[in-house]
Amino acid sequence: MKVKTILVSQPEPKVENSPYFDLVEKQKVKIDFRSFIHVEGIESKEVRKQKIDFSEYTAVILTSRNAVDHYFRVAEEMRFKVPDSMKYFCQSEAVAYYLQKYVVYRKRKIYVGKRTFPELVPLIKKYKNEKFLLPSSDKLKPLIPTTLNELKVTWKEATLYKTVVSDLSDLADVSYDILVFFSPSGIDSLLKNFPKFIQDETRIAVFGNTTIKAANDAGLRIDIKAPSPETPSMTMALKKYINEVNK
Questions:
Q1: Where in the chain are the domains?
Q2: From edge to edge, which strands make up the β-sheet containing 224-226?
Q3: Beta carbons within 10 angstroms of residue 89's beta carbon
Q4: What is the CATH number of domain 40-163?
Q5: Nearest residue to 242 (alpha-carbon basis) of 32, 26, 6, 2
Q6: What is the pLDDT of residues 186-224, one digit of tens each?
Q7: Domain at 5-36+166-245: CATH architecture
Q8: If both were cysteines, with which of 128, 137, 152, 168 could 193 make a disulfide (CB 3.0 to 4.6 Å apart)?
Q9: Shortest CA distance to 8 belongs to which of 177, 188, 213?
Q10: Alpha-carbon distance 123 to 141, whole Å?
């Protein structure tokens, strides 16, 4: 069956040159974007139950923009004034750039990784005598605590926000040729919103091994997988598939 409509379970890209828009133009398909999950902050009274004293830590590890937002939100709610001496270890340039929303960049000690958490490790190693706080969601990737424990640094996880299933009830009578997923939480959201979901001719596209496993565990048929050596991005995998079926 030809592909005419695609639903991507993420917010619409804010950049004009997104490869998704290129797909729309060149492949003549309709692509909609919708977050299947969203983030909610955990109240400071709940954070206090984790017995975390922000003042005990000399460095913060920031893995996402959500981590930045909720660290400063909870700090304010707890009336903790973040000292100028605080060191910030940002997983990527995007996270470091976002930090400027809260701090005067040139006056702070900010250390920036390239993109992935392992790429941040050499910088953490350099300052292994610091006391690190890791603001995180309720779904922390196991790689991060495992890596920090292996480094033998003093660190503590602070769960400050959680991933929540979005209400998709308005999509109940809408069908798409392809549904695109990037996380197990997205698959979970589909099944919680539509417990009687029957796949039939709907194609499922998944990105990453954990998402592939979640789709398989849910009994879904996977038609498009990424990344692969041939298609390292989801848009490339979609383009390849559309080229094959829309001949």
A1: 5-36+166-245, 40-163
A2: 30-33, 5-8, 178-181, 203-207, 224-226
A3: 25
A4: 3.40.50.10090
A5: 2
A6: 999 999 999 999 999 999 999 999 999 999 999 999 999
A7: 3-Layer(aba) Sandwich (3.40)
A8: 168
A9: 177
A10: 20
